[in-house]
Amino acid sequence: METLETLLEAIAPTTATSREILNPATGEIVGHAPVHGVADLDAAVAAATQAQVAWGSKSHAERSEILVRAADAIDASAEALAQLLTREQGKPLNGPNARFEVGGCSAWLRTAAALELEPEVVVDDGENHAEVHYRPIGVVGAIGPWNWPMMISIWQIAPSLRMGNTIVVKPSEYTPLSVLALAAVMNQVLPAGLLQVVAGDREVGARLSSHPAIGKVMFTGSTATGKAIIRSSADTVKRLTLELGGNDAGIVLPDADPKAIAGDLFWGAFINTGQTCAALKRLYVHEDIYEDVCHELTLVAKAMPMGVGTDEANVLGPVQNKAQFDIVANLVQAAKDSGARVLLGGDPDPEQKGYFYPTTLIADIDNDNPLVAEEQFGPALPIIKYTDLDEVLTQANGLEVGLGSSVWSSDKAKAREVAARLEAGTVWINKHGGVHPLIPFGGIKQSGYGLEFGVAGLKALGVPQVISA
Ligand code: NAD
Questions:
Q1: Structural domain boundaries of the chain?
Q2: Which residue, among 282, 280, 278, 281, has the nearest Cα to 403 in the 3D structure?
Q3: Confidence label for 209 from pLDDT (cuts 50, 70 and 90)
Q4: What is the pLDDT of residues 432-451, one digit of tens each?
Q5: Which residues form the active site (predicted)?
Q6: Is the CB–ligand 1 distance for residue 233 below 6 Å?
Q7: CB of 443 within 8 A of CB of 425?
Q8: Which residue in 223, 219, 224 sits closest to 239, CA to CA?
Q9: 293 HSE (CA, 13 A, CB side)
Q10: How many Å apart are CA 256 and CA 271, to the nearest integer?
Q11: Could you tell me the pLDDT band of residue 116, with boundaries at 50, 70 and 90?
């Protein structure tokens, strides 16, 4: 069982250069991260290639047993991992935040370990017998973002290892310690070479996505970087799973109960202080209940404490970094300048230590306002009034991205009809953004391709091979 101090010791840099990682809530030093380069990546890929031979030849049951032990190791050090995550990422310990994220890592790993993936018999008619098997790919490369650094890494690591691959992970430059610590804990039980973390910059990411010995890249991050990875992976024809940016719409139908849905609307939009790929980022509300929804949502939002993550009372934290803080601040300022109505927030305190942007709700805003049309990825929600269902569907579907969306109604059948007309990889009804280790998740349009989680997610980490007799 690790403590925060022993964890930081375990991941102390051994590289020639290292850099300070600062707490986005306080500016205090959290720890030091190694600065790995392309040569470190090449060495990691060579070790992963070697280790994959023995790991890939183990049975599913043998691999599962080891992965369950890795999940036990995460549970044993869960509090230390959460304490580190809070300090580096900023998210509070409580609420759907750091402790929740570490718990999710264990849950996803256990689910991947428990899933069965039998060969599929696709034809057996006496004349032909054909089966589809899923063989290991080899070495997988993973690149992740800074918003859910541990959870998203485990989404990449768990199915990769389960399917007999080894993996090299390149975390975001903003949150390397969280991923290094998660791997260090798992590596207490994993055989050497299976899981390695290379804490490098974009150059290392670019090398990873063009590396000849890497067979697949799992990427979660922005659409712009996803496109760069498609290009750099082309020459080696790598398999790709791309979980990219989103700008999820939620549509509240006129029969919804504003008071009943306000809490779930709030967390759909503000989970992880709005820094979530599939968060509710544009809320469309029918004119009949528009003022009531605005009122109820404001009441809920006002009651949610924001502050330093290690204070047990807080459920909202800072924006993780200055660049993202500026994006949110500029989008809200542009909305205010356009004459939109501020229901709450919108006025960051220039004297405030840390990148705290207040919980912000903006009403009476046009659909083409940048706060609606662009991904804010922070604690500011635009609420757009609509009158006509066809028109609001056109608006909701009008962007190039399609990760998640939601429909809110007292009539589930009606909500399903609307859901079928939304262009998104997932449509939630009367909730937004919840993921589950057995339910496939992935985007459409420019939110990416490939599915994660469940059996579909395991298949994405294997190469299909048909045996035809
Ligand atoms: P980002 O694209 O800036 O960075 C993600 C990772 O890519 C980092 O590790 C970075 O070092 C690396 N990278 C940058 N340039 C690269 C290159 N040319 N080649 C290879 N790697 C490169 O994203 P971010 O700012 O860290 O994360 C925020 C974005 O991620 C948002 O758009 C959000 O919607 C998206 N996101 C999507 C999901 C999802 O599941 N769809 C989940 C979380 C975040």
A1: 4-244+447-468, 248-429
A2: 278
A3: very high
A4: 999 999 999 999 999 999 99
A5: 243
A6: no
A7: yes
A8: 219
A9: 32
A10: 22
A11: confident
**Can you list the positions of beta strands (E) in 116-202?**
120-124, 129-136, 139-143, 166-170, 195-197
Tell me the per-residue pLDDT of 158-171, one tens digit each, with 9 for 90 and over: 999 999 999 999 99
Q: Tell me which CATH code domain 248-429 carries.
A: 3.40.309.10
Q: How far is the CA of 166 from the centre of ligand 1 (A)?
A: 22
pLDDT per residue over 217-267, tens digit each?
Answer: 999 999 999 999 999 999 999 999 999 999 999 999 999 999 999 999 999
- In short, whether 425's Cβ falls inside 6 Å of ligand 1 is no
Residue 127's contacts (CB-CB under 8 Å, 6 or more residues apart) are: none
CB half-sphere exposure, 267, CA atoms < 13 A: 11
Q: Residue whose CA is closest, atom 3 of ligand 1?
A: 222
CATH class, 4-244+447-468 region: alpha beta
Residue 426: CB within 6 Å of ligand 1?
A: no
Output the six-digit token pair for 70.
């890795």
Which ligand 1 atom lies nearest to the CA of residue 174?
26
For residue 365, pLDDT over 90 is answered with: yes
Which residue type does 249 have? A
C-alpha span between 404 and 320 (Å, rounded): 22
Q: How far apart are CA 309 and CA 98, in angstroms?
A: 9
What is the H or E stretch that residue 49 is in?
A: helix 38-56
> For residue 182, which phi and psi values (nearest 5 degrees)?
-60, -45
Residue 39: CB atoms within 10 Å:
10
Work out the burial of residue 69: count CB atoms within 10 Å of its CB; fewer than 13 is exposed, 13-18 middle, 19 or more buried: middle
Closest CA to 212 of 242, 243, 234, 241: 234
The pTM for the full model equals 0.97
